[in-house]
Design goal:
The chain is of the alpha+beta class. 60% of the residues lie in helices and 12% in strands. The chain has 6 domains: 176 residues, Beta Polymerase, domain 2 (2-Layer Sandwich), CATH 3.30.460.10; 144 residues, Nucleotidyltransferases  domain 2 (Four Helix Bundle (Hemerythrin (Met), subunit A)); 98 residues, Hydrophobic Seed Protein; 163 residues, no CATH class; 104 residues, Alpha-Beta Plaits; 111 residues, 2-Layer Sandwich (Alpha-Beta Plaits), CATH 3.30.70.260. The radius of gyration is 34 Å and the shape is globular.
Length: 884
């Protein structure tokens, strides 16, 4: 009993000491102590607790059984490994501890392990443990790369130090002997981790430890160093000449930044937290005192610095691994045997491409040779050797002027698609791309702090070029149009420049136009090329907004668009640029529905520009469509003919004659108190179309009731169109993504949604519909963090037939219903609607008319309506936030 009380008091004292020490270090961290220092002191604190409890356990066990446990301290060593072994212990990370023991006490060591782990857990430490002999540890290290890399970071804590030294000595010899086989195994394990946590350095919500360029890549360098050169310490690697002195400094600075960031994340959360979500990024930027600049938020400043460090880590670790692997005997032998000279001054080997001595001289004085190197690197898919890479970086940093011949070569590169994305990526990594497009330097690692964009500005622009070129490999109109573009260098240049205006106070499209003009002068483009480039950059959002926000069948929308575009060649470029820009934003942003809308809009615009159609021929076309409908319908009464003649051009543009006839037959069979609804799924677009026929006298507020019914069934509305017939019947057509659609039960699902639509009008309720999806805090946080205000704008210019209301608001389930209901309450009629995306917000675009079906021309009434709608939406947003 006394022993239990004595042990409890020791554990309690250790726990108190640990807590007080952690609090003290938290305070030191808050006062600005370096991250490396705080981690080292946390490690010392853990060492002290482990040492005290180990000594106490050894003593108690010896008292219990002197014969069995009397010399236990000589038979055992406690070995720290992993981050604990590196002395980089984070505030709430596990401590990885191995109980290393002699074979002679295998049967008894479990008693010590059980006692020690219980006591350590009682202090609050989270322990990852193993119990092994030296032989077992070494055998496992060759079988499991995770065990190997953890053991590489081993450090003696207490017990018999000779056991630890023997393990490390044998491990060093073993890994050096098997280095050639271990290197790819270690690299494969790291690649698998990157696939899970992010392959790109510019992941916008990175994991400090595991994402590319993070702490794990610094550790990768240490592991490779141990296997190849016998030491994992960067200082030791620098002394051996395998790590450059300046690289050692860069790594230490990055380590300090990452550890301090990680410490702050842990301390604030009160638990282990390595993921930098957007809320955490904002908090860290504020905590670390980033002030921001005009056009750049503090959080964007913080993350740009974060990316600068991770890019450097990624480059150094990748280069270090490549050099280490080549140093193996087999690699050297293969390099000599299979390398060959290309383009005079370069050699291509099995793993890398490098410059000859004469090539090094030419690279240092001629950027044209650097372009040649980048071409060859992409063509042969080989990394550039470190020595050659460094020569390029030095040449780029000292280059102040670019010759006309070099610029001509760069423009020639831009016109040749297949290898262009790889070439541009290499030029950007080496700091060369900004010599041709100076504004690219500022965009490096620039975060776009919104949920819409998934990449930094520079990576987004590079990815947009890749996406455009990929269209050519895919069936469909985008690929066909891309291949038809004659001046591909202008398209690719526009894609590289289109978002470089981000981070300024002014609208990024306006800034982008100036950057495009400056770039054109720098590259010596002709006046015609300059004008095309400036237009494509300045108006890179023109087509997406026209096609996705407005009624593409509205002649006024098309007229305004084609007048601005002006020529078929510019239209082709703008079409591909628009799609590539959207595809480069993030996964699934460019979906089949958007491609269909863009393509329809492109084809109609091209007809107008090439003389195949005219803006005044809509009625002539509509007359022919009405004749087709009458022919299919058969014996038309005078009333039916009047209905057909009243069909709007907009309705006819979006509906086949067969669909019109079906709708007319359905309406003919209805009484005024009846409602009919039917649907059709388009699998190629992933969209379902629902049409509802109801008499205008049945119930007021048809649109908002139908929108609510669809939302309650899990249908995300993309567009809507209300078509009123001369007989007082309305055909309301909705396109949406049915989140619960199942191809195996398509008919039943459509029938279920249609039934809900019918009931919403036949049995209307004053209650807000119960929406199928439930809000969660993450959804609320994502839309709130951007800080973008809810806005309501009106546009009386774009359309001749209706006033356009644009609602910019956080994406909330029920938003469309809430806005539509308030518009109805304001005695405005909705004739069409579209739902798009803008940065972190949705854009609900409503075409509205007054009670007479006319545009609202009274500006005071319009402004009052916008203000009232805005107030309603702000109240709706507040209610969403109050739930959490």
């Amino acid at each position: 009993m006394s022993q239990g009380l004595t042990l409890s008091s020791v554990v309690l004292a250790a726990k108190t000491s640990l807590q007080e020490g952690q609090q003290k270090l938290h305070s030191q961290h808050a006062q600005g102590s370096p991250g490396i220092q705080v981690c080292a002191k946390l490690t010392d604190l853990a060492d002290t607790v482990v040492g005290v409890l180990f000594t106490e356990a050894i003593s108690d066990l010896a008292q219990l059984d002197q014969q069995t446990f009397g010399d236990l301290e000589d038979q055992v060593a406690l070995v720290a490994h992993g981050g604990y072994g590196r002395r980089e212990l984070a505030p709430f990370s596990d401590i990885d501890l191995m109980i290393l023991h002699r074979t002679a006490i295998t049967d008894h060591v479990s008693v010590l392990a059980e006692r020690l782990l219980r006591d350590l857990s009682d202090t609050g430490l989270i322990v990852g443990h193993s119990v092994r002999t030296t032989r077992q540890a070494l055998a496992l290290s060759l079988e499991d790369p995770h065990i190997l890399t953890s053991l590489i970071e081993s450090r003696h804590v207490c017990g018999n130090v000779e056991l630890t030294e023997r393990l490390l000595g044998r491990l060093r010899k073993l890994t050096h002997r098997h280095a050639r086989g271990l290197l790819p195994v270690i690299d494969d394990a790291r690649r698998e981790e990157r696939r899970q946590y992010g392959e790109t350095v510019y992941l916008l919500e990175p994991n400090i430890k595991r994402s590319r360029g993070g702490l794990r890549d610094i550790q990768l360098l240490r592991w490779i160093g141990f296997c190849m050169y016998g030491t994992s310490d960067p200082n030791g690697l620098a002394l051996k000449g395998v790590l450059e002195k300046d690289e050692q400094v860069v790594l230490r600075n990055a380590l300090e930044f990452l550890l301090r960031t990680r410490n702050e994340a842990h301390f604030d959360a009160g638990k282990a937290k390595d993921q930098l979500d957007r809320a955490e990024q904002m908090r860290l930027a504020e905590t670390f005192g980033y002030r921001g600049t005009e056009g750049m938020l503090p959080v964007e400043q913080f993350m740009q610095e974060y990316f600068q460090h991770t890019v450097a880590v990624r480059y150094i670790s990748t280069r270090f691994f490549a050099n280490a692997y080549q140093r193996s005997r087999l690699a050297n032998w293969l390099s000599v045997l299979f390398s060959h000279r290309v383009a005079g001054d370069f050699r291509v080997g099995p793993y890398r491409i490098s410059a000859t001595p004469r090539g090094m001289e030419r690279i240092g004085s001629d950027l044209s040779e650097v372009l040649r190197l980048a071409e060859l690197s992409a063509l042969y898919d080989k990394r550039i050797s470190h020595e050659t890479w460094e020569a390029v970086r030095k040449a780029a940093s000292s280059c102040t002027e670019v010759s006309r011949e070099t610029i001509a070569r760069f423009l020639s590169l831009l016109s040749r698609p297949p290898q262009l994305p790889r070439i541009l990526a290499r030029l950007h990594e080496m700091g060369v791309l900004e010599k041709f497009i100076p504004a690219f330097a500022r965009a490096r690692g620039m975060l776009q702090f919104n949920e819409y964009h998934k990449y930094t500005v520079d990576e987004h622009c590079l990815l947009a070029v890749r996406r455009a070129i990929q269209f050519a490999q895919q069936p469909g109109p985008l690929g066909k149009v891309y291949l038809e573009i004659e001046q591909k260098e202008i398209l690719h240049l526009a894609l590289l420049v289109h978002d470089l205006g981000k981070g300024y106070v002014e609208d990024h499209s306006d800034v982008g136009k100036r950057i495009a003009g400056e770039t054109a002068i720098h590259l010596g483009l002709s006046q015609h090329q300059t004008e095309m480039l400036e237009f494509l950059v300045h108006k890179h959002l023109l087509m997406s907004r026209a096609a996705l926000w407005h009624d593409i069948n509205d002649p006024a929308v098309m007229q305004s668009f084609v007048v601005e575009v002006g020529s078929p060649e510019v239209l082709r470029m703008l079409y591909v640029l628009t799609a590539a820009d959207m595809a480069a934003v993030g996964p699934d942003v460019l979906n089949d529905w958007k491609i269909e809308l863009l393509t329809q809009f492109y084809k109609r615009a091209m007809k107008y520009l090439t003389g195949g159609d005219t803006l005044v021929s809509d009625e002539g076309w509509a007359r022919k469509q009405r004749e087709k409908i009458s022919a299919i319908f058969g014996d038309c009464t005078q009333g039916t003919t009047e209905i057909i003649n009243s069909l709007s051009v907009t309705y006819l543009r979006g509906t086949t004659p067969e669909q019109v006839v079906e709708a007319l037959h359905r309406v003919q069979n209805l009484d005024k108190q009846d409602v009919d609804a039917w649907g059709l799924h388009y699998p190629d677009r992933g969209v379902t179309e629902f049409t509802v026929a109801a008499h205008l006298s049945l119930v007021p507020g048809t649109f908002y009731r139908l929108a609510g019914a669809l939302a309650s069934e899990g249908v995300e509305v993309l567009s809507a169109q209300i078509n009123t017939l001369s007989t007082g019947w309305a055909l309301d057509r909705f396109h949406g993504i049915d989140t619960e659609y199942d191809a195996s039960s398509s008919d039943q699902r459509i029938e279920k949604v249609c039934d809900r639509l019918v009931q919403s009008l036949k049995h209307p309720s004053l209650e807000v519909p119960k929406f199928r999806r439930i809000w969660n805090k993450q959804d609320v946080d994502k839309a709130t963090l951007s800080g973008l205000p809810t806005r309501v704008l009106f546009d009386n210019v774009t359309s001749d037939r209706a006033t356009i209301l644009q609602v910019f608001a956080p994406d909330r389930l029920g938003l469309l219903y809430t806005a539509a209901k308030k518009i109805h309450d304001l005695q405005l009629g909705i004739v069409a609607a579209k739902i798009g995306t803008y940065i972190d917000q949705v854009v609900d675009v409503f075409y509205v008319t007054d009670t007479q079906g006319k545009k609202i021309v009274d500006e005071a009434r319009l402004q009052s309506a916008c203000d009232t709608l805005l107030e309603t939406l702000e109240e709706f947003e507040a209610e969403c936030l109050m739930k959490y």
